[in-house]
Amino acid sequence: MGTLVCFHAHPDDESIATAGTMAKASSAGHRVVLVVATRGEHGEPVPGVLADGEQLAVRRTEETWASGQVLGVDRIEFLGYVDSGMAVTRTSEQPWCFARADVDRAAARLALILSEERADVLTTYDDNGGYGHPDHIQVHRVGRRAAERAGVEQVFESTINRTHIARSIAAARDANPGGLPEGLDGPDLDADPDFGKPEEVITHQVDVRPWLERKRSSMLAHRSQMADDHFLLAMPAPMFETGLGHEWYIAEGPPPPPGSLAAELFERREPTG
Question: Which of 112, 196, 229, 263 is the most exposed, having the fewest neighbouring CB atoms within 10 Å of its CB?
Fold first, then answer.
């Protein structure tokens, strides 16, 4: 049995980025640990979802535990930092937010968990945090430093495959000449060149189609952030499978040893560039 530790910035990030990988590891009998840097205090709650006086951070903590139960997570830890909110906002400039935390100190907190768990694999985010969120970029920095401190060699950076998204959107438009339903046409990749990474730099993938129902259930656990009309949940089943049936990673370390947890979970894809 091996141990997979997934490090995320906010509650619900795990459900979108690594839920399938976590469910795959759990289903195979491995130990799965979820570490979340913040409690998502500055997320935008679905209108009307919170009861009078209910704190968003408390709700999102509860939702994370519900998501973890769906995915078979064995341990959940919060590092205790404050959500920074989006870039170039007042909250992201506060000295106490996660994006401005001392990297070495934050890494020491994560490294303690990695050492306690004797982690075989750590997942973080790519160097742009997937789409430029300051907390996600900080997860990349802190995760890399923590892995060094704890001696974890197998580090896989969760990323967004922008080439796959562009290909999928083009195919969907070809199949629907009258136009896609509102909200299902995907991100505007031309307007956001920093969204995701091109396929040629992505080194690994995980086929999570056997665990898609658990991935979707993990998303549904985060009801403060995802209403039924959220574009991911509103996708028809075939589109959901196309868009979310694989999870993508970049790994820069040594190749996983044969028979290791990393070799079992992640499929190598040769860069095309």
Answer: 229
Q: Extract the runs of DSSP E, i.e. beta strands, from 39-106.
A: 75-81
Cα four-point dihedral sign 232, 234, 237, 238: negative
Query: Does residue 98 contact residue 135 with C-beta atoms inside 8 Å?
Result: yes
Q: What is the per-residue pLDDT across 166-207, written as a single tens digit (0 to 9) for each?
A: 887 777 666 666 666 665 556 677 667 788 999 999 999 999
Calpha distance 237→260 (Å, rounded): 33
- Asked whether the whole model's pTM tops 0.70, one would answer yes
DSSP for 155-224 reads EEEEE-BHHHHHHHHHHHHHH-TT-PPTT-S---TTT-TTSSB-GGG--EEEE-GGGHHHHHHHHHT-TT
Please say whether the structural domain 3-268 has been given the CATH code 3.30.2130.30. Answer: no
Q: Quick one: pLDDT at residue 273?
A: 47
255 in the Ramachandran plot: left (φ > 0), alpha (ψ -120 to 50) or beta? Answer: beta
Question: Could you say which DSSP state residue 228 is in?
Answer: T
Alpha carbon 255 to chain centroid, angstroms: 22
- Taking the domains of the chain in order of start, what are their residue ranges? 3-268
Buried b (16+ CB within 10 A) or exposed e, 236-266: eeebbebbbbbbbbbbeeeebeeebbbebbb
Residues 6+ away with beta carbon under 8 Å from 92: 84, 85, 86, 99, 134
Partners of residue 124 on adjacent β-strands: 157
